[in-house]
């Protein structure tokens, strides 16, 4: 097992890279019955990496999380997580804290014409206001704060969380997987598994080893690039996505609430309430926080400059926001810019290295699928690893490296596919069949639909319109088990553990 305190226990190998020693007193297993594996290395402390560490810790599986940055990501990204993700947050013991910080109850999501502001169709979320599985609304940065706190306060015995640890290369052999990690930050105090240790000086490279390595390192994943170089099938869309946190009294004055998808061929996007009302003494940031996200195709060719962004933003806001305000009427407190992609790897497992979340697949954010898919990936992967750890499932199938199983289970003898191959195959297929397709449709609905005829041309909007006023039907629609979910514990007896 990897000794997590790389700063103090490294030994230098022939290649000049320090190796963190395997075998740790903290998780020592000499006196315990030997488990099928001992630990997991997780690259990236985003929602996928932290949640995986938490879920593994809840079953007593030790992990080390390596994060390149000195703190969790603060960019303006995910804010809403659908019912399937909410179920996982509860299972992970996170939901109460998330609800306490976020908007407790989101009244509706609707689609509007940007030109007129008129509502075309919507979903009444008030019908599930008392349902424990209802959508969770909380900015990603706040969710990460909660996850970091849980790792440190509740799971310190099993989770070692190391910031300033940038993975540069990963590899594997028969004995395990490893990551070469550049220690950044130039020294200082660091929280480590509930203990504070001193980090190493900058520019040291240390090799961390484990039985399995999971790349949760986001869309620019180093782990993915080590496996597949630049090959990442899919599409990068024209234009950029401009995201801003906004205070504007006009939202409430014009009766807006919840999430509002804006249909338009110039500026299309989502305007959604993202924070509880605050009582700031500063009159410009008094009231609830809103998030305005819009796509700007005219910025397609090059990176849009800061000046261009601000200049065009005034025009976008004038068109999109109720009351068509001038810049003096709202306050923008934070902005982020993104390119938009829908991409997925050919395989989410290569031997002892697995991928989850954005490291494996990305999609445009309309419909709130990215983080939700990441959450469902790691929930499934945690179940698979727990199954192997507890001897309820075999990691690998009947063939060497589990290669046969990765092709697909259909037509094969039952029980031959290892559960880690099942993870890789099923979660990838869920992305390709549902998340990719639906998120593309969601973006087309707002960017390439004529709002004047949307109800005639778009079956989804027609379905929503037909449910309006029918609480029972709406509730059933919102809470049904989604096709993007999969319970891997149902495979425990079928994946060959009994053959081990
Ligand atoms: C504008 C916008 C809005 C969105 N809204 C939603 C939404 O409402 N709902 C939803 O479900 N999804 C949404 N998403 C998508 C969602 O934010 C992502 O899918 C989600 O953050 C993916 O989580 P992750 O943990 O896989 O990756 P990330 O969140 O990207 O985390 C990866 C982590 O790995 C670290 N890392 C990277 N490289 C290395 C390395 N070499 N070594 C060590 N660490 C490394 C990074 O610093 C980062 O902390 C949105 C995205 C955008 C851009």
Tags for this entry?
8-stranded mixed beta sheet, binds flavin-adenine dinucleotide, 500 residues, 6-stranded mixed beta sheet, transmembrane, FAD/NAD-bd_sf, alpha/beta
What does this protein look like?
This protein has 500 residues and is of the alpha/beta class. The protein contains 14 helices and 23 strands. The protein has an eight-stranded mixed beta sheet with strand order 7-6-17-18-19-16-20-23. It has a six-stranded mixed beta sheet with strand order 9-4-3-15-22-21, sandwiched between helices. Strands 1-2-14-11-10 form a five-stranded mixed beta sheet. β1 (10-12) and β2 (18-20) form a beta hairpin. The longest helix has 29 residues, at 419-447. Flavin-adenine dinucleotide is lined by residues 43-49, 66-69, 73, 77-81, 140, 166-167, 216-218, 222, 241, 243, 293, 338, 357-359, 365, 368-372, 374.
Helical content class = 25-40%
Largest sheet descriptor: 8 strands, mixed
Query: How many DSSP-defined strands?
Result: 23
Estimated structural class: alpha/beta
Spatial separation of the terminal alpha carbons: 22 Å
Strand content: 25-35%
Provide the spatial order of strands within the biggest beta sheet. Answer: 7-6-17-18-19-16-20-23
> Globular, elongated, flat, extended or rod-shaped: what is the shape?
globular
Average pLDDT for all residues: 86
* Ligands: flavin-adenine dinucleotide
What is the number of helical segments per DSSP (H or I, 4+ residues)? Answer: 14
